[in-house]
Specification:
The chain has about 160 residues and is mainly alpha-helical. It is built from 5 helices and 2 strands. The protein has a single domain, classed as dinb family like domain (Four Helix Bundle (Hemerythrin (Met), subunit A)), CATH 1.20.120. A two-stranded antiparallel ribbon has the order 1-2. Strand 1 and strand 2 form a beta hairpin. The N and C termini lie far apart (about 45 Å).
Length: about 160
């Protein structure tokens, strides 16, 4: 099995677990516990947005997801700022997480080695030069959010 196939499979497994974690807290998906900036719904939307930011956007292309997602789910945003915006529900986002994961891998499959016009340094100090780098970083990023969702779940239950 090639590296791309392994990454793709592992990403689908991780995102399945994220969907399970998110759904387990669906009754409190919009609650933001004290000391937290975001809720369960935001995390799922953020994980739809991030792979596109780390691939399509860095290629200089449209992200191929609703434009509002950057306003609602990008790093540094918060549900506190949503106001009366028609943000998708948690069930809608969970369904989209799976569908968008398939789409981004399909869209990037033959472009993994394409160079970004300009390398991008993440907040972790990792320099991304290609969509393969972006998808790998996105997988690592998913793991960070699994941990955050576990901690958020504990905060919601306390």
């Amino acid at each position: 099995m090639d590296t791309f196939s392994i990454l793709k499979e592992q990403t689908f497994v991780a995102r399945g677990k994220i969907a399970t974690l998110a759904t387990a807290h669906s009754s409190r998906a919009d609650h933001i516990p004290p000391g937290w900036n975001n809720n369960v719904r935001w995390h799922v939307g953020h994980l739809i947005t991030t792979p596109r930011r780390l691939t399509s956007l860095l290629l200089g292309e449209d992200m191929a997801i609703p434009e509002e997602y950057s306003t609602w789910f990008a790093k540094g945003t918060s549900p506190r700022d949503w106001g009366s915006d028609p943000v998708p529900t948690l069930p809608e986002l969970v369904a989209e997480l799976s569908a968008e994961t398939r789409r981004v891998f399909s869209d990037m499959e033959n472009r993994l080695s394409d160079s970004f016009p300009k390398p991008y340094e993440t907040s972790l100090g990792v320099v991304l030069k290609t969509p393969a780098d972006g998808l790998t970083m996105s997988f690592i990023h998913d793991g960070i959010h699994v941990g955050l969702l576990l901690a958020l779940g504990r905060a919601l239950n306390s």
